[in-house]
Design goal:
Radius of gyration: 13 Å
Order of helices and strands: EHEHEHEEHEH
Helix content: 25-40%
Structural class: alpha/beta
CATH class: Alpha Beta
Strand content: 15-25%
Largest sheet: 6 strands, parallel
CATH architecture: 3-Layer(aba) Sandwich
Number of strands: 6
Shape: globular
Number of helices: 5
Number of domains: 1
CATH superfamily: Response regulator
């Protein structure tokens, strides 16, 4: 069985590389981009099974990129990795499975669990957002 294909988006090079490293052993990372515009283009071209994205990025936010993909008929499950506060969890929408992982909680375990949950059609909140 082939591992799920993951696209990573974060505007900070170190964070983007860190997320790729956390995922690379269990998933097939098909690309990594640094802004929302590139995220939309890469998602259409690469057809990932799941997208792991920062929320706040230049040119287009991760949330806006997700909405644009949905509008284009490309509803891909998203795992948002963010440093934003707990109020962001209210943005869970039924349009497609979504997960939120707090950057301070970021570990291989939380990220892998989040990816697996959204691939199974279930939302996921890291401990920070559940409190």
């Amino acid at each position: 069985m082939k591992p799920p294909r993951v696209l990573v988006a974060d505007d900070h090079d170190k964070m983007r590389r860190f997320v790729v490293e956390l995922l690379d052993n269990e998933f097939h990372v098909v690309g990594a981009v640094g802004n929302g515009d590139d995220l939309v283009q890469a998602a259409i071209r690469l057809r990932p099974d799941v997208i792991v994205s920062d929320i706040v990025m230049p040119r287009l936010s991760g949330l806006a990129a997700r909405d644009m993909l949905i509008a284009k008929g490309r509803a891909v499950p998203f795992v948002f990795v963010s440093g934003l506060g707990k109020e962001i969890a209210c943005l869970l929408l039924p349009a497609c499975p979504v997960a939120f992982v707090y950057k301070c909680d970021l570990s291989a375990q939380h990220l892998r669990t989040a990816v697996e949950e959204v691939l199974g059609g279930r939302p996921y909140l890291s401990p920070h957002y559940r409190e």
